[in-house]
C-alpha cells in the first residue's frame, strides 16, 4: 500500500485517524527524570542529554524532514532562537530521519539549532513518541520541556506547528526560565 507523505504527516499530528496508526509506548510523566540518550546531530556532533544539565532543554519530536507541518514548526523554532537564548534554553529536534536528511533540511530551512537522528527509533520510543503507521514507524509530534536538573516539567502532546514555538516560550516563562 502506498500512503502519501501528506496522510502520514496528518496522522502523526493526530488530525486524521488511520486504522494502522498507533502509538507504541506511553510518554514519561511530568516530574520524572528525562530518559538520557546520545544521538548524532546534523552537524556531525553527538548530543548527550545528560551533558546539558544546568540548561533548559526543549526536546521536540517531529515526523519527517521537509514536510509542510514539520517545516513550519522548525522554521518557527529557528526564528525564535534569540528568545530561547535569553531563557538559557536549548532546542533539539528529533526524528527517525538520517543525519544526511537532517543536513539537507537544515540547509533548506536555515535552521540554527540541532536536529538529532534517531534512526534506531529507541529515543522516540523511550519518550512515548514513536508511532506506527502500518509498517512505517515515525516520531509523533510531541515536545518535552526538561528543567536544568534533567526533570521533565512539561509535555505537549497536542502540537499545532504554526503556534507551537510561542506556546513553548510562554511555558518556559511560566516555569521561571525567563532571563533575569
Write the layout of secondary structure elements.
Layout: H1 5-12, E1 21-23, E2 38-40, E3 46-48, E4 56-61, H2 68-79, H3 81-86, E5 89-95, H4 99-109, E6 114-117, H5 122-126, E7 130-133, E8 136-139, E9 142-146, E10 152-156, H6 164-174
Parallel strand pairs: 4-5, 5-6
Antiparallel strand pairs: 1-7, 2-3, 4-9, 7-8, 9-10
Number of helices: 6
Which term fits the overall shape?
globular
The count of strands amounts to 10
Q: What is Rg?
A: 15 Å
In CATH terms, what is the architecture? 3-Layer(aba) Sandwich
Q: H/E element string? A: HEEEEHHEHEHEEEEH
Provide the low-confidence segments as ranges: 12-24
The helicity comes to: 25-40%
Task: Please give the order of strands in the largest beta sheet.
Answer: 6-5-4-9-10
What is the total number of structural domains? 1
Describe this structure in words.
The protein is of the alpha+beta class and 180 residues long. Helices cover 29% and strands 24% of the residues. The chain has helices at 5-12, 68-79, 81-86, 99-109, 122-126, 164-174, and strands spanning 21-23, 38-40, 46-48, 56-61, 89-95, 114-117, 130-133, 136-139, 142-146, 152-156. It has a five-stranded mixed β-sheet with strand order 6-5-4-9-10. A three-stranded antiparallel β-sheet has the order 1-7-8. A two-stranded antiparallel sheet has the order 2-3. The N and C termini lie far apart (54 Å).
